[in-house]
Write a structure and sequence with these properties.
heterodimer, A: 168 residues, mainly beta, 4-stranded antiparallel beta sheet, 3-stranded antiparallel beta sheet, 12 strands, B: 451 residues, mainly alpha, extended
Chain lengths: 168, 451
């Protein structure tokens, strides 16, 4: 009985603390805009979601991140140097990757850096590759060039997708 | 509710029939003057008092259905307003339901198994549900395996504290699935190589985590699998190692000949350490070798040094164990020597495939056929002289499989015409008839030996 209650307490603490972190980690975080290519609406155990690809987030374009020998952390510096696109929330300047660093070294304070991981197959993940949508949402059918992604980047360089905004 | 009801029925399915049978038995006892009528009544009352309310009445089923409607209604309302429910409400509601389920599970543990079992299963899956909920609420994405690893790690203490074998086996099965999926796709458990020949071996995390999962699997097997079934874990390990040889990992073997050597070594080790399932696997590999008759050459590709060393290590281990190890079945000296010889020949046979030459591959296929036939005959012989029915049946099944396969191999062309099909069918029936007669004769001989 005591052991099981301790396990239950552990589970509740885990989800309580994780939930608190998720609720607070992106407060006052910087907002950036990214052009996105929604692909493959999926319906797995996780529910309905849209897989996203970001042309702007391609670390392979930079010499530092061209060869990745093992799964490791990468940092991409982004800047609002892309084209200005008209969205439902008004005209927004798109952000592009400007620099890449690999390894565990924390990037300098200056600039907006997004933390990602490089997989051994040459894939990079920034934690914004999936957007959950409701079953009836028009976003499930969104095609390339129809939406842009509003993303928040916090002090720990973690990116979180806030919403997909249709272009006008 | 449905789970509770089903579990209720499963746990107490014998109760109503027990009462009926008890009543009938006591009626007969009264008729035969074994017990007095009032004793019958008191015995029945005692039985009912001990098993009160065990069967679900019609009204209970209606109540279950009513509960189902209410739950479905709530679910529908929540689903329709899902987007309007904020993250704080979602988290708090999740934690409240989790607390309720966990506490109810703890409280019903020693009292009501019918409610405890479904609650325990709900609790077991609830962390996974929570991870999915948080991912959906906060748009989290990334490693596809991590949520499952976290879920299994979180539920591990709960499973070990539980006395339910079924829960333990579910956890074990989930662990094995995560291991086999995670090791061969990308993510924190991946052991596969990169496109440029780079492998995850430089990331010790994946190997350490794999080791931890294996440790959990071993503990689970010791706790939840019956002693006779623990060989299954060994089989799982053999299949896992072979998958590492096959896939693009640091142990990759791109040579079909070496793959046969590895498969046979693993299967023989499994057989020597765990018995029957390993015997089936060894015969399966030997059966696979018979198809090399259709192969003209092997073209080896990349072979990792570590994979090759491990393969020869396994082969040496299997050979040593075959020559010097103790058999799990009791055999007299002559039979033991014969079996050791046959197993060694089977173990070393795939080495001939390493050359990759057509003539050797074809010879190897012929020897594999002869070995399989010899094993089938020996199984029947030993089974019939020692009165072991399964050995006779296994030998007959093996012989039949071999005959049918070679029959199709040799006379496969006959299937193209109607007349050919008829002749082939008659020949096949004759083979089956002959084998079945032989089997009956052997089993009859066994009965005579026993009597």
């Amino acid at each position: 009985m005591k052991g099981l209650r301790l396990v239950l307490l552990g589970h509740l603490l885990f989800f309580g603390l994780w939930g608190t972190y998720l609720l607070t980690s992106h407060r006052d975080a910087e907002e950036i805009w990214l052009e996105t290519l929604p692909v493959d609406p999926r319906d797995l155990l996780a529910g309905h979601y849209v897989d996203l690809r970001f042309q702007a987030l391609t670390p392979q374009n930079f010499s530092d991140c061209r060869t990745i020998n093992a799964p490791q952390v990468v940092y991409l510096r982004l800047a609002p140097d892309g084209p200005e696109l008209r969205t439902r929330e008004g005209p927004k300047r798109m952000w592009l990757a400007r620099e890449c660093r690999k390894g565990g070294t924390v990037p300098p304070e200056k600039g907006t850096w997004v933390r990602g991981t490089a997989e051994q197959k040459g894939d990079f993940h920034f934690g914004i590759e999936r957007f959950y949508v409701s079953e009836t949402s028009f976003l499930r059918e969104a095609r390339s060039g129809e939406v842009v992604a509003k993303v928040s980047v916090n002090q720990r360089n973690e990116a979180r997708i806030l919403e997909l905004v249709p272009r006008r | 509710m449905i789970l509770a009801a089903v579990s209720y029925r499963i746990y107490n399915r014998r109760s109503s029939s027990f009462n009926r049978r008890l009543g009938s038995l006591l009626d007969q006892a009264v008729t035969a003057n074994v017990v007095a009528p009032d004793q019958r009544t008191r015995l029945l009352e005692l039985a009912r008092a001990q098993r009160h309310g065990l069967a679900l009445s019609a009204s209970s089923w209606i109540a279950v259905l009513a509960g189902l409607f209410v739950v479905a209604g709530f679910s529908l309302i929540i689903a329709h307003n899902w987007d309007d429910i904020g993250p704080v409400i979602r988290i708090l509601a999740f934690l409240a339901v989790f607390l309720f389920i966990g506490e109810a599970c703890v409280r019903t543990r020693s009292l009501k198994a019918a409610f405890h079992v479904p609650l325990e299963f709900l609790w077991f899956f609830f962390p996974l549900l929570g991870i999915g909920l948080y991912a959906q609420t906060f748009q989290l994405s990334g490693d596809p395996i991590k949520p499952f690893v976290v879920w299994l790690a979180l539920t591990l203490p709960m499973v070990w504290l539980s006395s339910r074998i079924f829960l333990g086996l579910t956890h074990t099965l989930a662990l094995a699935t995560v291991l086999f999926t995670g090791n061969f796709i990308h993510g924190l458990l991946s052991l596969t190589s990169g496109d440029g020949g780079v492998w995850a071996g430089t990331n010790p995390g994946a190997w350490l985590l794999t080791l931890a999962i294996w440790a959990a699997l071993v503990v689970n097997a010791r706790r939840f699998l019956p002693t006779g079934q623990r060989g299954l874990l060994l089989g799982l390990a053999a299949v896992w190692v072979f998958a590492l040889f096959l896939a693009s990992t640091p142990l990759h073997l791109g040579d079909p000949g070496l793959l046969f050597v590895a498969a046979m070594s693993l299967a023989v080790l499994w057989m020597l350490l765990a018995g029957f399932p390993g015997l089936v696997a060894s015969l399966g590999v030997l059966y696979g070798l018979t198809f090399l008759w259709h192969t003209n050459e092997f073209r080896p590709h990349s072979v990792s040094t570590s994979g090759m060393i491990l393969t020869y290590g396994l082969l040496a281990g299997a050979a040593l164990l075959t020559a010097l190890g103790r058999f799990t079945v009791n055999l007299d000296r002559k039979w033991e020597l014969g079996v050791r010889g046959i197993v060694l020949a089977t173990l070393l046979l795939p080495l001939a495939a390493l050359t990759g030459e057509a003539s050797l591959l074809h010879s190897l296929a012929i020897v594999a056929n002869l070995l399989l036939g010899t094993i089938a005959v020996l199984l029947m012989w030993h089974g019939s002289t020692r009165g072991v029915v399964w050995q006779v049946n296994a030998g007959v099944a093996l012989l039949l499989l071999l005959l049918i396969t070679r029959f199709i191999d040799v006379l496969g062309d006959m299937f193209r015409s109607g007349l050919g099909l008829i002749v082939a069918g008659i020949l096949l029936a004759a083979v089956a008839f002959g084998v079945e007669r032989g089997r009956r004769k052997l089993l009859g001989f066994k009965k005579e030996t026993i009597s």
